[in-house]
Amino acid sequence: MSNQTSHQFPVYSHPNAASTVHEQKPVIVRLENVCKIYGFGETAVQALADVSLMVEQGEYCAIMGASGSGKSTGMNIIGCLDRPTTGHYYLDNLDVAQLGDTELARIRNLKLGFVFQQFHLLPQLSALENVMLPMVYAGVKTAERRERAVAALTRVGLENRLHNKPNQLSGGQQQRVAIARAIVNRPVLLLADEPTGALDSHTTQEVMQIFKELNASGITIVMVTHESEVARQTQRIVWFRDGQVLHSHLLPEDIAQVASL
Ligand SMILES: Nc1ncnc2c1ncn2[C@@H]1O[C@H](COP(=O)(O)OP(=O)(O)OP(=O)(O)O)[C@@H](O)[C@H]1O
Ligand SMILES: [Mg+2]
User: Fold this and answer.
1) pTM for the structure as a whole
2) What SS3 class is residue 201?
3) Is ligand 1 within 6 A of the CB of residue 39?
4) Where are the beta strands (DSSP E) in the chain?
5) Is the CB of 47 under 6 A from ligand 1?
6) Which residue in 245, 241, 238, 242 sits closest to 46, CA to CA?
7) Which domains does the chain possess?
8) What is the pLDDT of residues 128-158, one digit of tens each?
Protein backbone atom coordinates (compact mmCIF):
# COMPACT_ATOMS: atom_id res chain seq x y z
CA MET A 1 0.00 0.00 0.00
CA SER A 2 2.77 2.40 0.90
CA ASN A 3 4.23 2.14 -2.59
CA GLN A 4 1.05 2.94 -4.48
CA THR A 5 2.18 6.42 -5.26
CA SER A 6 5.88 5.88 -5.78
CA HIS A 7 5.65 6.42 -9.55
CA GLN A 8 4.78 10.05 -8.90
CA PHE A 9 8.12 10.79 -7.29
CA PRO A 10 11.72 10.53 -8.43
CA VAL A 11 12.91 7.06 -7.44
CA TYR A 12 16.43 6.54 -6.19
CA SER A 13 18.35 3.60 -7.54
CA HIS A 14 21.73 2.78 -6.10
CA PRO A 15 24.37 2.73 -8.87
CA ASN A 16 25.60 -0.71 -7.78
CA ALA A 17 22.16 -2.19 -7.21
CA ALA A 18 22.21 -4.50 -10.24
CA SER A 19 25.67 -5.88 -9.48
CA THR A 20 25.17 -6.47 -5.76
CA VAL A 21 26.06 -10.09 -5.04
CA HIS A 22 24.89 -10.36 -1.43
CA GLU A 23 21.29 -9.67 -0.72
CA GLN A 24 20.99 -6.38 1.13
CA LYS A 25 18.13 -5.13 3.22
CA PRO A 26 16.16 -2.25 1.74
CA VAL A 27 17.40 1.12 2.92
CA ILE A 28 14.63 3.13 4.56
CA VAL A 29 16.58 6.30 5.42
CA ARG A 30 19.41 7.59 3.25
CA LEU A 31 20.74 11.04 4.10
CA GLU A 32 23.51 12.17 1.76
CA ASN A 33 25.66 15.17 2.65
CA VAL A 34 22.76 16.93 4.33
CA CYS A 35 23.33 20.48 5.57
CA LYS A 36 20.76 22.56 7.39
CA ILE A 37 21.27 26.25 7.96
CA TYR A 38 18.77 28.29 9.95
CA GLY A 39 18.60 32.02 9.26
CA PHE A 40 20.77 34.17 7.02
CA GLY A 41 23.97 36.17 7.06
CA GLU A 42 25.57 36.98 10.40
CA THR A 43 22.91 35.20 12.43
CA ALA A 44 22.92 32.00 10.36
CA VAL A 45 23.27 28.78 12.37
CA GLN A 46 24.53 25.60 10.79
CA ALA A 47 22.48 22.96 12.59
CA LEU A 48 23.61 20.07 10.38
CA ALA A 49 26.95 19.99 8.59
CA ASP A 50 27.35 17.32 5.93
CA VAL A 51 25.40 14.51 7.56
CA SER A 52 25.29 11.17 5.75
CA LEU A 53 23.39 8.36 7.40
CA MET A 54 21.73 5.12 6.38
CA VAL A 55 19.09 3.13 8.24
CA GLU A 56 18.08 -0.25 6.86
CA GLN A 57 14.71 -1.92 7.12
CA GLY A 58 14.22 -3.57 10.50
CA GLU A 59 16.82 -1.51 12.37
CA TYR A 60 16.17 0.01 15.79
CA CYS A 61 18.34 3.12 16.28
CA ALA A 62 18.77 5.65 19.02
CA ILE A 63 20.01 9.13 18.18
CA MET A 64 21.98 10.69 21.02
CA GLY A 65 24.23 13.70 21.55
CA ALA A 66 24.51 16.89 23.58
CA SER A 67 21.87 19.60 23.57
CA GLY A 68 22.15 21.62 20.35
CA SER A 69 24.04 18.89 18.47
CA GLY A 70 21.38 18.64 15.75
CA LYS A 71 19.27 15.65 16.84
CA SER A 72 15.88 17.32 16.46
CA THR A 73 16.93 19.02 13.23
CA GLY A 74 17.95 15.62 11.89
CA MET A 75 14.72 14.01 13.07
CA ASN A 76 12.65 16.79 11.51
CA ILE A 77 14.31 16.15 8.18
CA ILE A 78 14.00 12.36 8.47
CA GLY A 79 10.34 12.90 9.44
CA CYS A 80 9.68 15.14 6.42
CA LEU A 81 8.73 18.02 8.72
CA ASP A 82 11.59 20.09 7.30
CA ARG A 83 13.91 20.01 4.28
CA PRO A 84 17.70 20.04 4.04
CA THR A 85 19.27 23.32 2.90
CA THR A 86 21.57 21.24 0.69
CA GLY A 87 22.10 17.52 0.20
CA HIS A 88 19.76 14.64 -0.50
CA TYR A 89 17.26 12.65 1.49
CA TYR A 90 15.80 9.41 0.19
CA LEU A 91 12.99 7.96 2.29
CA ASP A 92 12.08 4.42 1.26
CA ASN A 93 13.85 5.21 -2.04
CA LEU A 94 11.86 8.37 -2.70
CA ASP A 95 13.79 11.58 -3.21
CA VAL A 96 11.89 13.76 -0.77
CA ALA A 97 14.31 16.66 -0.19
CA GLN A 98 12.76 18.85 -2.84
CA LEU A 99 9.08 18.02 -2.44
CA GLY A 100 6.52 20.73 -1.70
CA ASP A 101 4.54 20.98 1.55
CA THR A 102 1.46 19.11 0.31
CA GLU A 103 3.48 16.21 -1.06
CA LEU A 104 5.56 16.05 2.12
CA ALA A 105 2.39 15.90 4.22
CA ARG A 106 1.15 13.04 2.07
CA ILE A 107 4.40 11.14 2.39
CA ARG A 108 4.31 11.65 6.16
CA ASN A 109 0.84 10.19 6.38
CA LEU A 110 1.63 7.24 4.10
CA LYS A 111 5.07 6.28 5.26
CA LEU A 112 5.78 7.60 8.74
CA GLY A 113 4.52 7.21 12.27
CA PHE A 114 5.42 9.74 14.99
CA VAL A 115 5.63 9.47 18.76
CA PHE A 116 6.46 12.59 20.79
CA GLN A 117 7.43 13.27 24.39
CA GLN A 118 4.11 14.99 25.15
CA PHE A 119 1.89 12.40 23.40
CA HIS A 120 -0.07 15.04 21.40
CA LEU A 121 -3.40 13.23 21.64
CA LEU A 122 -6.60 15.15 20.94
CA PRO A 123 -8.20 15.63 24.39
CA GLN A 124 -11.83 15.56 23.24
CA LEU A 125 -11.44 12.24 21.42
CA SER A 126 -11.39 8.74 22.93
CA ALA A 127 -8.36 6.47 22.57
CA LEU A 128 -10.14 4.67 19.72
CA GLU A 129 -11.00 7.91 17.92
CA ASN A 130 -7.46 9.24 18.31
CA VAL A 131 -6.08 6.08 16.71
CA MET A 132 -8.69 6.13 13.91
CA LEU A 133 -7.81 9.70 12.91
CA PRO A 134 -4.70 9.11 10.71
CA MET A 135 -6.74 6.64 8.66
CA VAL A 136 -9.33 9.32 7.89
CA TYR A 137 -6.59 11.32 6.16
CA ALA A 138 -5.34 8.15 4.45
CA GLY A 139 -8.82 7.47 3.03
CA VAL A 140 -9.47 4.14 4.80
CA LYS A 141 -13.17 3.16 5.00
CA THR A 142 -14.95 3.57 8.35
CA ALA A 143 -15.43 -0.12 9.20
CA GLU A 144 -11.80 -0.92 8.46
CA ARG A 145 -10.65 2.13 10.41
CA ARG A 146 -12.36 0.84 13.51
CA GLU A 147 -11.09 -2.68 13.05
CA ARG A 148 -7.49 -1.56 12.55
CA ALA A 149 -7.61 0.91 15.45
CA VAL A 150 -8.89 -1.79 17.82
CA ALA A 151 -6.13 -4.13 16.61
CA ALA A 152 -3.45 -1.43 17.14
CA LEU A 153 -4.74 -0.62 20.65
CA THR A 154 -4.85 -4.33 21.47
CA ARG A 155 -1.26 -4.63 20.31
CA VAL A 156 -0.20 -2.05 22.92
CA GLY A 157 -2.33 -3.69 25.63
CA LEU A 158 -5.14 -1.13 25.75
CA GLU A 159 -8.08 -3.21 24.50
CA ASN A 160 -9.89 -2.37 27.77
CA ARG A 161 -9.43 1.39 27.42
CA LEU A 162 -10.86 2.02 23.94
CA HIS A 163 -13.40 4.60 25.04
CA ASN A 164 -11.34 6.48 27.61
CA LYS A 165 -10.35 10.04 26.83
CA PRO A 166 -6.67 11.02 27.32
CA ASN A 167 -7.36 12.65 30.73
CA GLN A 168 -8.81 9.31 31.88
CA LEU A 169 -5.54 7.53 31.11
CA SER A 170 -2.15 7.43 32.84
CA GLY A 171 0.90 8.94 31.14
CA GLY A 172 2.16 5.52 30.07
CA GLN A 173 -1.28 4.59 28.70
CA GLN A 174 -1.46 7.88 26.77
CA GLN A 175 1.92 7.16 25.23
CA ARG A 176 0.69 3.69 24.28
CA VAL A 177 -2.32 5.27 22.52
CA ALA A 178 0.13 7.54 20.69
CA ILE A 179 2.17 4.50 19.65
CA ALA A 180 -0.98 2.73 18.42
CA ARG A 181 -1.85 5.85 16.42
CA ALA A 182 1.68 5.92 14.98
CA ILE A 183 1.57 2.30 13.72
CA VAL A 184 -2.03 2.11 12.52
CA ASN A 185 -1.22 3.25 8.97
CA ARG A 186 1.51 0.58 8.80
CA PRO A 187 4.38 3.03 8.36
CA VAL A 188 7.73 2.06 6.84
CA LEU A 189 9.40 4.01 9.65
CA LEU A 190 8.43 4.82 13.23
CA LEU A 191 10.04 8.00 14.58
CA ALA A 192 10.07 8.78 18.26
CA ASP A 193 11.42 12.03 19.75
CA GLU A 194 12.13 11.56 23.48
CA PRO A 195 9.19 9.14 23.82
CA THR A 196 10.01 8.36 27.44
CA GLY A 197 11.02 11.92 28.43
CA ALA A 198 7.77 12.53 30.34
CA LEU A 199 7.51 9.07 31.92
CA ASP A 200 8.73 7.60 35.20
CA SER A 201 11.21 4.73 35.10
CA HIS A 202 8.63 1.96 35.50
CA THR A 203 6.42 3.32 32.71
CA THR A 204 9.49 3.98 30.57
CA GLN A 205 10.22 0.26 30.77
CA GLU A 206 6.67 -0.65 29.71
CA VAL A 207 6.87 1.67 26.72
CA MET A 208 10.33 0.39 25.77
CA GLN A 209 8.97 -3.17 25.87
CA ILE A 210 6.34 -2.15 23.31
CA PHE A 211 8.96 -0.58 21.02
CA LYS A 212 11.00 -3.76 21.33
CA GLU A 213 8.05 -5.93 20.34
CA LEU A 214 7.19 -3.67 17.41
CA ASN A 215 10.77 -3.84 16.19
CA ALA A 216 10.78 -7.63 16.60
CA SER A 217 7.72 -7.73 14.33
CA GLY A 218 9.74 -5.92 11.64
CA ILE A 219 9.01 -2.22 12.20
CA THR A 220 11.99 0.09 11.63
CA ILE A 221 12.43 2.55 14.51
CA VAL A 222 14.53 5.70 14.96
CA MET A 223 14.34 7.29 18.40
CA VAL A 224 15.94 10.41 19.88
CA THR A 225 16.75 10.05 23.54
CA HIS A 226 18.87 11.65 26.24
CA GLU A 227 18.65 8.57 28.42
CA SER A 228 21.47 6.04 28.21
CA GLU A 229 19.23 3.37 29.76
CA VAL A 230 16.77 3.84 26.91
CA ALA A 231 19.44 3.94 24.19
CA ARG A 232 20.96 0.77 25.58
CA GLN A 233 17.77 -1.11 24.71
CA THR A 234 18.04 -0.29 21.00
CA GLN A 235 20.34 -2.04 18.53
CA ARG A 236 22.39 0.87 17.33
CA ILE A 237 23.34 4.29 18.65
CA VAL A 238 24.01 7.23 16.34
CA TRP A 239 25.90 9.99 18.12
CA PHE A 240 25.62 13.60 16.97
CA ARG A 241 28.12 16.31 17.79
CA ASP A 242 28.14 19.88 16.48
CA GLY A 243 25.77 19.06 13.64
CA GLN A 244 27.70 16.00 12.50
CA VAL A 245 27.48 12.27 12.99
CA LEU A 246 30.43 11.53 15.24
CA HIS A 247 29.60 7.81 15.52
CA SER A 248 27.07 5.99 13.36
CA HIS A 249 27.28 2.68 15.25
CA LEU A 250 28.23 3.43 18.84
CA LEU A 251 28.11 0.55 21.30
CA PRO A 252 26.03 1.03 24.47
CA GLU A 253 29.08 0.40 26.65
CA ASP A 254 30.87 3.33 25.01
CA ILE A 255 28.12 5.92 25.65
CA ALA A 256 29.61 7.21 28.91
CA GLN A 257 33.05 7.66 27.40
CA VAL A 258 31.79 9.56 24.33
CA ALA A 259 29.39 11.67 26.41
CA SER A 260 32.22 12.83 28.69
CA LEU A 261 34.48 14.04 25.85
N1 LIG B 1 14.33 27.15 14.09
C2 LIG B 1 15.61 27.42 14.39
N3 LIG B 1 16.15 28.62 14.12
C4 LIG B 1 17.46 28.90 14.40
N5 LIG B 1 18.30 28.01 14.95
C6 LIG B 1 17.81 26.80 15.27
C7 LIG B 1 16.44 26.43 15.01
N8 LIG B 1 16.25 25.15 15.43
C9 LIG B 1 17.43 24.76 15.92
N10 LIG B 1 18.37 25.72 15.83
C11 LIG B 1 19.79 25.63 16.23
O12 LIG B 1 20.34 24.51 15.57
C13 LIG B 1 21.21 23.78 16.44
C14 LIG B 1 20.72 22.34 16.54
O15 LIG B 1 19.47 22.33 17.24
P16 LIG B 1 18.61 21.02 17.54
O17 LIG B 1 17.29 21.47 18.03
O18 LIG B 1 18.63 20.15 16.32
O19 LIG B 1 19.47 20.34 18.69
P20 LIG B 1 19.14 19.05 19.59
O21 LIG B 1 20.31 18.15 19.45
O22 LIG B 1 17.82 18.51 19.25
O23 LIG B 1 19.15 19.66 21.06
P24 LIG B 1 18.27 19.24 22.37
O25 LIG B 1 18.93 18.01 22.92
O26 LIG B 1 18.43 20.42 23.28
O27 LIG B 1 16.85 19.00 21.96
C28 LIG B 1 21.23 24.54 17.76
O29 LIG B 1 22.36 25.37 17.76
C30 LIG B 1 19.96 25.34 17.72
O31 LIG B 1 20.09 26.52 18.47
MG1 LIG C 1 15.99 18.34 20.37
Assistant:
1) 0.89
2) helix
3) yes
4) 27-38, 45-56, 60-65, 86-91, 94-95, 112-116, 189-193, 221-224, 236-241, 244-250
5) yes
6) 242
7) 59-83+100-260 (3.40.50.300)
8) 999 999 998 888 999 999 999 999 999 999 9
